[in-house]
């Protein structure tokens, strides 16, 4: 039992969250993740998943995991740094390096752990980090854990970034520019060509977290490949948990850099690694994405994205700055956002309301994420539900 005052204090804080509509109402998935799934006991079209290429329930990933489990067992035994890791991780590291077109690579237990561990490892007191104002929370936490100075530049604004670079140039030992490749709430793409040019001019390191770009842009290789700046990125960060349909984080760079991170990043050194079965599924996912089949899945994903975005805009919804299969419906009101999400679920369409503090107040939205496995009927069902309840609620 906790102390009475502790229960009372957090009970009141929870009540405040509920009253402001800022609490997560988490659904229960009762089937494999896919473009359609059973959620809270009903079959729905899923627009709330990062599973862009519909690989999360692919039988080849499952088979690879089963075979690895039979060979290596389930658990890793301890943290990789202490007990060692199973040999299949060597194959995975080589495949990631091939995928990222880097000399070497390293996997982490999660994508969050990459940023939380790597950023504090590569910068120190006397350095400065320039970070996009809408970077992911894992980047923000990684910056907080470092002892470097922090400077925030306006979202996707190379001019503001250059102004900030002028201000810090010559005053710090190292400069690190950090940005998402694709921003998770708006679905827009970082202007990496311009950012890379500035990194060259000011001798800054460039760190790109491409969690939502991998498997989606650049024939699957991500936003640096899409924009032709792979060679100019010093730290290629990503995750297996989105388009690749699995779990775990990754980083690619030169051999010396990767070995340094392996020996300094606490979230790698002190975290138990994922099971060897997960490594096998990750390896298979990369093989698929890098194949002709992967390119066909990407083509279908973009075909679905164009159809769905055009449909939403035709109804009158505001899809913001979306450039990717992340297609937000920006509503700007917490109550209406939550009510629309509930109504869509009642119609058999699973979406998630995104409200403060995930986004700024006044920009509340539903974030739709299109899947390569969605059929035209799936998307038409979702669009019909959006039109029906968007008009009922006075949103369109």
From TrEMBL:
Its cofactor is pyridoxal 5'-phosphate. Its EC number is 2.3.1.29. Gene3D superfamilies: Aspartate Aminotransferase, domain 1, Type I PLP-dependent aspartate aminotransferase-like (Major domain). Keywords: Acyltransferase, Ligase, Pyridoxal phosphate, Transferase. Residues 43-384 form the Aminotransferase class I/classII large domain. GO terms for molecular function: glycine C-acetyltransferase activity; ligase activity; pyridoxal phosphate binding. It is an enzyme of class 2 (transferase). InterPro entries: Aminotrans_II_pyridoxalP_BS, Aminotransferase_I/II_large, AON_synthase_class-II, PyrdxlP-dep_Trfase, PyrdxlP-dep_Trfase_major, PyrdxlP-dep_Trfase_small. Belongs to the class-II pyridoxal-phosphate-dependent aminotransferase family. This is 2-amino-3-ketobutyrate coenzyme A ligase. It comes from Desulfurococcus mucosus (strain ATCC 35584 / DSM 2162 / JCM 9187 / O7/1). The lineage of its organism: Archaea, Thermoproteota, Thermoprotei, Desulfurococcales, Desulfurococcaceae.
